[in-house]
Amino acid sequence: MNSDCIFCKIANKEINANLIYEDENTVAFNDLNPQAPVHFLVIPKKHYESLNEIKDKEEFGNIFSVIPKIAEKLGIKEYRTVVNTGESAGQTVFHVHIHVMAGRKFTWPAG
Ligand code: 5GP
Ligand code: ZN
Predict the structure, then answer these.
(1) 29 phi/psi in degrees, rounded to 5
(2) pLDDT given for residue 16 in this prediction
(3) CATH number of the domain residue 70 falls in
(4) Is residue 66 included in any domain, yes or no?
(5) Domain containing residue 63
(6) Domain total for the chain?
């Protein structure tokens, strides 16, 4: 728990983010500023600043393996997943999170 971290506060329910999924290790919630009709974030409850800080295979498994479960629950089969790591990659919140977006056509390469 990092007391300055907004996503730690969401994971700890100090801030209400209307969780769409929760288990022992992870939570998922809709992005405040959605970039697609469906846009949610999956985070580990434990604070890691970025993907670079996760050394534990199990933790990788925890955050990625919930995506298909949530997608099934929401009835989406096609989606874009993004993890921005570091400022130049577009990371603005320094608690690791996976963006999952769906409901529109996405272009490639990402901007
Ligand atoms: P990043 O730019 O770090 O990859 O993504 C951070 C994301 O978190 C952005 O898409 C932003 O809209 C979202 N975000 C920032 N603060 C909050 C918040 O307090 N609540 C929610 N639900 N999303 C947030
Ligand atoms: Zn945090």
Answers:
(1) -155, 160
(2) 92
(3) 3.30.428.10
(4) yes
(5) 6-102
(6) 1
Q: Is the CB of 49 under 6 A from ligand 1?
A: no
Q: pTM, whole model, 2 decimals?
A: 0.97
Assess if residue 109 is contained within a domain.
no
Per-run averaged pLDDT (10 residues), the chain, 111 residues: 92 95 98 98 98 96 97 97 98 98 96 84
Instruction: State if residue 51 touches ligand 1 by the CB under 6 angstroms criterion.
Output: no
CA angle 72, 76, 78 (to 5 degrees): 120
Is 97 noted as a catalytic residue in this protein? yes
Does residue 110 belong to any structural domain of this protein? Answer: no
Which ligand neighbours the alpha carbon of 9 most closely? Answer: 2
Pocket test residue of 92, 97, 99, 100 for ligand 1, highest count of atoms within 8 A of CB:
92
- At 95, which amino acid appears? H
Domain-located, residue 98: yes
